[in-house]
Fold this protein.
Amino acid sequence: MKLTYFGTAAAEGWPAIFCNCELCKEARQLKGKNIRTRSQALVNDDLLIDFPPDTYMHYLTYNFNLPEITELLVTHSHTDHFYATDLEMRCVPLAHPQPKIMHIYCNDKVEKKFYDFMPTANKVTDNFEIVHATPFVPIQIKDYTIIPLLANHDKTEECLIYLITQNGKTILYGNDSGIFPQATFDCIKRSGLHIDLASFDCTMQSKQEGNNHMGLIDVIETKKKLIEIGAVNESTICVVNHFSHNGLWNHERMEEEAKKHGLLTAYDGMEIVLRN
Ligand SMILES: [Zn+2]
Ligand SMILES: [Zn+2]
Ligand SMILES: [Zn+2]
């Protein structure tokens, strides 16, 4: 199984779209891994996670077949994860030939946002199927078994993170979230799964947060809890992701700090392959 990170920033991007702070100015000069677009990832070549406004840019930058992708997991309704407006472009006459129906797995608030932005009902039924993702209830998509888990994020909606298993390998895609709710740790434990790749929210980098996003210190605590319940061990690849300039560490500094704790730092375009 392969995970490709297309976007690794928080909502504002990095450099942030309207920001002139020192870190954003520095990122514009350094370029490379310091340029981060909004959050999106692809599992293998057929399971997309989140649909930010930078999806189009990701399509231009990375070699993947967006028109052919029919399975979209959405974590929550924030714009950096679900930019509903661009989904209309998947409908004829804006796309030829008409792409196959896209299944969107999501919570109620994402569903509402989707209908608010979709101009006519027939465009919805001809092109999309909304599948409600319920926390802790497994979903079967092709040969993936996916367990939606409750995140610790915006309390006005049921924000989700996902445990994705295929051919005996498991990925935990863990943003946006602070330290996970106990029910999520319990569900991971109950599943008996060994996590091969754990990807954590590290929006706040140098700062401690834990109740909406994580800083590095919160990631370390979460990883420790996952080790205690037997889901993560020394063979697990652990990655930090979803960064904001408010965390105050550029890519090089983030990488240096993360490395001390056995964590990899995500960057736009990073690929991780899990071999059987
Ligand atoms: Zn976000
Ligand atoms: Zn900034
Ligand atoms: Zn969010």
